[in-house]
# Entry
Amino acid sequence: MTTLKQRSRNRTPLAMMYIGAGLTAIVGLFPFIDQSTTTVLADHIKASYPAYEPGAIDAAVAAYLAILSMVGVLGLLGWLGTIWAVRAGMRWAPWLATGLLAIAICIAIAGLTVQDTSGDVGLAPLLGWLQVLPCIPGLAAVALWRRADRARLSSPPA
# Structure
């Protein structure tokens, strides 16, 4: 059972986690919205591979949609699992959040930097930068926990 002090210590990190989960859902849905509106992903593939036929571009877009939707679903599961762990008062919740943040940052960096066979960045830069968005509230939650832990450890016992 969590104490009142633990709950108040976790309130802001929890809010950050809910924001991160919302951003993850938006970022996960954006490629599907893009497919029927701005076509940033398809245009990026077309620019990288000018010889591709429309069918090949559609296949590449479908592959990216599958990858990005899987990343989004796994990210959302990570947020929800961490939120559950915090609300349940699990002592390992900050460690889980830190580990998942490290994984998310690696995925975002990969999306921004991995080059495909054309020599261009594989994922459209806009979609790569969108992958960074959910990392920001995750970083804030972990930083707030660390600050609260330092304050708790440095203060004399009551």
